[in-house]
Amino acid sequence: MVKLLIETGKRLLDIVLENISKLSAFDKVFVIEAPTGYGKSVGAPAIAALNHEKEFSFNFIHVLPLRAIVEDLYICKYLYALGVQSSECNRAPPKAFCEALKVLGVSEKDVAYQMGFDYMLRGVGRKEPTYDAKVVISTLDSFAYNFLRIPVTELFREVKHYATPRARIFTATLFLDEVHMINRFEDEASDNVLALLKVLIEFSLVTQTPLVMASATLWSAFRNSIRQWSKDRVVFFTISKEDSKSGTHICVRDREYENLAKSVKWRTSIVDEKDLLSKVVEHVEKGERVLVVRDRISDAVDLYSKLALKEDEKALLHGRLCLGDRERALEKSKNAKVVVATPMIEAGVDWDFDVGFRDATNIPSIVQVFGRVCRNRTDCEGEVYLVKTSNSLGSLLDFVNNHKNIDWRIPYSYTSDRGEDVVGYQHILELQKAEVRESLRAEIIFRGLIAPIALPPSYINTAIDEYGHSLLKKPLAQFYVHGVQGLKAAKSVYDVISSTFTYTYDIVERGGSV
């Protein structure tokens, strides 16, 4: 047994490392469940370092669902830990994160990223589409293409050189972050992504490629699907009220985290949509910083336009902004009194607000959004509101009406110091009724791509044509908004890209309604 190399300071992560140290082969899928802000992402390199020392893997691929999270993690954690500091970063990465990179023996040149439309990075660091680096931080989209032998740099070429990225995946520790987001966004064909996850789980078990998944907001149906796909060769590590072990589940109590989380006092309320504006203004006038997340872009824009604040006091973020506008909005949001957004912001953005509002619809999203309230503070009073709309979940509203004491940072229920019963957020997650069902058609196509020893380019081209060259999302269309004269005046490709925004093709077909 290899001695535990690094102590992360997070008991759940240290238990994960202890279990890895006892393995003779990485023959199970590991799933880490811990609250938002716990430190799952920054604990990932410690897992990779231990796997490297035990010769389970040679390299490390950290997979994330969104480009913005890849950018933040790459610049503000990985590069920062290796001495490349940026003014964009709020704080340095934890000591354990830096130690893990030392154990891996990597320098700045050994750490790369991979994502499409990497305008935001503007030449910072190293891009590596073939995954030919010791550590790669990648979007899920890029990972899917490389895993399925569709090299991202040769998507439209007749001949595909897929051997290098595929080999790098075989030899890596794979860390799938924010895995709950697979089954949620409208612009993703979720059943296709679930088919990919099923095939990846089976692949990792057959090849003994270490696969670790992390999330704050899994619910029972999702866990059951993971168990089925892995044929029970899975271990769930979960923050819980007490230490226990049962079958595939290891529950861990982290008293240090628990004490910090309990210092936040929560107040949960329901507000009618017609009263939303006045309630937001009420909190702003108290000097509080407010986050509002609406499902629909049109609703977010409407609220933003009605806020009688200076332009530098409010920020608007949604998926239809030009990339340049989005970058400016993100910068403005750091100090804005009110940030109005759609669910695109809920994962990976290290924001801290006093008050949060969220449409009472998507339950995992609600938990993630409220995780941005009192995120980096103790002895804080967090006030959160569920916005009642025509699309609200009745079961969710009923639950909140019947349970006023809800803890949005601790998953399990407990009795407070004042003797009051407090309900953990996991009880709310179990109200989630979204089906976790993979696409059989996509699964068949994906198996056909990964199984053969050699694969003719014609088969790959047929497969990607089948999905409009967009395997995991609905086909996308990119639009330039400043007209012919603006295009002619552009001084660089970045000027052009920063003036574009993305529509899914089905939105284009129905006339651009959002």
UniProtKB/TrEMBL annotation:
Residues 287-377 form the CRISPR-associated nuclease/helicase Cas3 domain. Keywords: Antiviral defense, ATP-binding, Helicase, Hydrolase, Nucleotide-binding. InterPro entries: Cas3-like_dom (IPR054712), Helicase_Cas3_CRISPR-ass_core (IPR006474), P-loop_NTPase (IPR027417). This is CRISPR-associated helicase Cas3. Pfam families: Cas3-like_C_2. GO terms for biological process: defense response to virus. GO terms for molecular function: ATP binding; helicase activity; hydrolase activity.
